[in-house]
Amino acid sequence: MDMASLQDVDFRQLIALREVARERSFGRAAQALGYTQSAVSQQIASLERLLGGPVFDRPGGPKPVELTPLGTLVLGHADTLLGQVAAADAELRAFARGQHGSLSVGTFQSVSVQLLPQIVSRFRPLHSGIDLRLQESDDLDELVDGLREGRHDLSFVVVTDDLDGLEVLELFDDPFVLVSPPGEVSEGDSVQLDQLAELTMIGEFDTPCQRQLDADLRRAGVSDLNVVFRSTDNGAIQAMVRAGVGHALMPALAVDADDPAVRLQRMDPQLPPRTIGLAWRAQRSMSPAAAEFVDIARQVGLAMQERQGQLEPAG
Amino acid sequence: MDMASLQDVDFRQLIALREVARERSFGRAAQALGYTQSAVSQQIASLERLLGGPVFDRPGGPKPVELTPLGTLVLGHADTLLGQVAAADAELRAFARGQHGSLSVGTFQSVSVQLLPQIVSRFRPLHSGIDLRLQESDDLDELVDGLREGRHDLSFVVVTDDLDGLEVLELFDDPFVLVSPPGEVSEGDSVQLDQLAELTMIGEFDTPCQRQLDADLRRAGVSDLNVVFRSTDNGAIQAMVRAGVGHALMPALAVDADDPAVRLQRMDPQLPPRTIGLAWRAQRSMSPAAAEFVDIARQVGLAMQERQGQLEPAG
DNA sequence: CCATGTCCATCAGCATACCTGATGGATATG
DNA sequence: CATATCCATCAGGTATGCTGATGGACATGG
User: Burial letters for A23-55: b for 16+ Cβ neighbours within 10 Å, e otherwise?
Assistant: First the structure.
């Protein structure tokens, strides 16, 4: 009969225990808790049945009830447990407000330059309780794997068709622009695509991005670019352009647009832009903080899309 | 609607959460817990209603269910809480076996000499988990107050009629004996009471014990003892006797009976013996350890009573 | 493309648990 | 000895939790 254990107690019983101990009276405890005296009596009785002994001595009459040694012991644990519950409760409320927990976001270089700082600078002050972890990788596959294996909650991606199992929010299109040393190419906002073959170029190594670019160029009839330097670092490429080594085709996002020492020109006809998206595992619940991050990313992406639209010529 | 909190969750729901998370399946968790799948489904559903969001993502079909971020957070707290409960449970079981908690026992000098060591040496090995605190005091009133105010769980007492509110277990009678230097008094087991007036005596100061003794002697017609030395330390008194300074009337309990350098003699007629008892607050529950202590004290007291009975002459 | 198997959600029904309101017994107080 | 103040208990209605059966969603194999 003593096989029953604390496993079977109810928090209400522990709360009743605590209140009766504080008030030294069943009736007053009941009043404080919003129960009838009978209810508290039964709660304590049930607790005592479970424990196998009384938790209060009832002197009878107007004398206050008093904890037994057993009651004292149990009350100590009750206080611990109820405190733990209160702490957990606070944490849950913070979580619901997006103010507790961690958020791991995968990102890659071109996103990290312009987009991510804007998002983070809006997200962080609203969610100071979140442990935001940004993990950058050059390898898009690694980011996607990180998502699939649960290492990341969200990840920026370049939208392709091999994102099975992921849900992708398309944020905006990121066109390729020609980055040139000033005064080296014709004036104007755009450059004819077939002029590229005549230029000294700087490119990336064999990255997916570069591969796609090469394929798109070939499809547009341009091949065998004269690439004299390759780097995987966008900053390095831009520095090379600045130094007059050559021209580069770069995603607009990756370019430091404030650099006065380079000129940006659109291609004509346009190369197919990369679509930048934010992805997460499909059919998986998202923490409130993650949802908020996605929403902010959506807004920032929209704003960025619009800004590019303004720069873009009608034709 | 989100006003509900963790306060209202049931341990069973947390256990179900833990088991489903471990098994990654409602059905298997149900089997492990001895419920039907329906029951576990309802437990989790109820938990989710309380939390305001899902704790598992159910992909549907044979795919395993998976914790949501909310579920992960709650599971962490559930583990903490359940661990705490398990610890409390273990402690309660130890308490029930008299293997956990503290036991404060008040005592006084004459008890500490013979009786208490026997009791403690039997009690301690049986209850190694108990923090046994023995507190000795010369002042019996202090011991009784300590009981009434809850500083002690038990206390040895000399039984009197002013122990209101206490429950007293009488352990045995402790007769007064005359302690004499060898060869100073007549042979035999006992001494006539009126011979005392002729002896050089050693006594205590104005203690309740001494006061009672004086009153009893006066009632028996003996007064104005020739007391040449007083001390409150029984050992010191016995040492004085050993040194031949005089005789002492001492409670038998307080005498080191193994001392070959003194003689013990009963008084004739007998002086009213002190009754040694063990007391605790009336109507108050007692810890299992305390109950065990009382029982051991009862047994040891009984044995001591019998031993004295053997030494006592029939008349 | 359909049949099958494996999940979980849902429903009805029954048993149990819990609360309320009223009553009774025990204990101090005047 | 009467009264007041406690808590325990009882009867009754409601809510809750479980079982067993059924249905829908998803993946797999023919």
Answer: bebbebbbeebebeeeebbebbebbbebbebbb
Report if CB B228 to strand C is under 7 Å. no
- Given A8, A15, A52, which is nearest B96 (Cβ)? A52
Domains in chain B: ranges and CATH: 6-96 (1.10.10.10), 101-173+275-311 (3.40.190.10), 176-272 (3.40.190.10)
- pLDDT reading at A312 higher than 50: no
**Which amino acid does the sequence have at B227?**
V
In whole angstroms, what is the distance from residue B191 CA to residue B178 CA?
8
Judged by C1' against the alpha carbon of A283, the nearest nucleotide is D26
Q: Are B193 and B268 in contact (CB under 8 A)?
A: yes
Take residue B288 and report the two structure tokens written for it: 């299992």
Q: Which H helix or E strand runs over B249?
A: strand B247-251
Q: Apex CA B83: angle with CA B77 and CA B84, to 5°? A: 90
Query: pLDDT below 70 — which residues of chain B?
Result: 1-4, 184-187, 309-315
Q: Which nucleotides of D are covered by protein (CB under 7 A)?
A: 4-11, 17-21, 24-28
The stretch A263-274 carries a mean pLDDT of 85
Q: Which among B52, B88, B101 is the nearest to A6, CB-wise? A: B88
Spell out which residues of chain A touch residue B6, defining contact as CB-CB under 8 Å: 85, 88-89, 92
* pLDDT at A139 exceeding the cut of 90: no
* Inter-chain CB proximity B77 and A91 less than 8 Å: yes
According to DSSP, the β-strands at A166-174 and A274-281 are: antiparallel
Per-residue exposure over A82-112, b if at least 16 CB sit within 10 Å of its own CB, e if not: bebbeebeebbebbbebbbbebbbbbbbbbb
pLDDT mean over A7-34: 95
Nearest DNA or RNA nucleotide to B39 (CA to C1'): D18
The pLDDT of residue B199 is: 86
Give Dmax (Cα) for chain A.
Answer: 106
- What's the CA gap between B90 and B92, in Å, rounded? 5
C-alpha–C-alpha distance, residues A244 and A184, integer Å: 9
Which residue type does B156 have?
F
Distance from C-alpha of A164 to C-alpha of A18, rounded to nearest angstrom: 54
Contacts of B84 in chain A (CB under 8 A): 77, 80-81, 84
- Taking a C-beta distance cutoff of 8 angstroms, is the pair A197, A224 a contact? yes
